[in-house]
Amino acid sequence: MILSFLNQKGGVGKSTLSVNVAAYLAKKPRKVLLIDADTQGTVAAWAALREDSKFRVVSMARDNMARDAMAMAVDYQDVIIDGPPGAGKITRAAIIASDVVLVPIEPSGASIWASRDTIAQIQEAQSYNPSLKGAFVVSRKLANTVLGRDVREMAATNGFPILKSEIVNRVGFAEALTMGTSVFEWAGGREAAQDIQKLCLELERINDGEEIIHTGPTAESA
C-alpha cells in the first residue's frame, strides 16, 4: 500500500500521522518506507533526532516525485507519503503515486474549506484511476466539544467519505514528535497509540477491499 496524507492546509497533523502510522506498520514487522514530500522537512527533522529507526525515511519534496516513489515502493510492503501544504505539483504527484489518500481535517470549518482543492485533485485522479481511494480522517479532535461532535456533519457536505477512526488532540503526539520518537515508544503516548492503532486497522480493511462509505456521526465522535 502507498498511503499519502494530504491537505492544502498546514498544521492539520499530516506529519504526526505519517510518522506514527509508519511506526505502527513497522512493528508488525513490515518493511516500511516513509517519504517526506514536504519542503518544510518535518519528518526528516524528526528522523535526524534518532540513532536508528524501524523504517526508512527519505526526503523527496519535488514535482516529479511520483515516478521515484513508485519505483522505490517495489522494495517495501508499505509506503507512507507526508505531503506538503497547498495543492501544487508535489501534491498532485503524491496522489498519482498513491493507492489511498487520506485528508486530515481538524474540527473547524477552515480545515474543511481548505481541503476542497485537494479533494478536487483526488477526484480528478480517480477519473482515470478508479482504484484510487480517498477519505477524510478527523485529526487533532477536541474531545467533549461541539466542534468535536459536529466535524463529521461539516465534512459530509463535501460528499467525500470520512473514516470511522478519529485522532484526538493528545499531548503525547506533540511530545513524542519533539523527542524523535513515535507514540508507541513514548511513555506518555498510550492513548495516542490506541488512536493510531484503530486508524491502521481500518486502513488494513480498506486495503483489503472494504468500501469507504462512512459520512455520518459515529459513537466515537460523541
Structure, explained:
- This protein is an alpha/beta fold and 222 residues long.
- The chain has a single domain (2-221), classed as Rossmann fold, CATH 3.40.50.300.
- 42% of the residues lie in helices and 18% in strands.
- It has helices spanning 14-26, 42-48, 65-73, 89-97, 109-114, 116-128, 146-156, 171-178, 190-207; strands at residues 2-5, 32-36, 56-59, 78-82, 100-105, 133-141, 162-168.
- Strands 3-2-4-1-5-6-7 form a 7-stranded parallel sheet, sandwiched between helices.
- Strand 6, helix 7 and strand 7 form a beta-alpha-beta unit.
- 45% of the residues are buried.
- The mean pLDDT is 88.
CATH topology: Rossmann fold
What does the oligomeric state look like here?
A: single chain
**CATH class value:** Alpha Beta
What profile does the largest beta sheet have? 7 strands, parallel
Radius of gyration: 16 Å
Helix content: 40-55%
Low-confidence stretches: none
Per DSSP E runs of 2 or more residues, the count of β-strands stands at 7
What is the number of helical segments per DSSP (H or I, 4+ residues)? 9
Q: Termini distance?
A: 31 Å
Give the helix/strand layout:
Blueprint lengths: L1 E4 L8 H13 L5 E5 L5 H7 L7 E4 L5 H9 L4 E5 L6 H9 L2 E6 L3 H6 L1 H13 L4 E9 L4 H11 L5 E7 L2 H8 L11 H18 L15
Parallel strand pairs: 1-4, 1-5, 2-3, 2-4, 5-6, 6-7
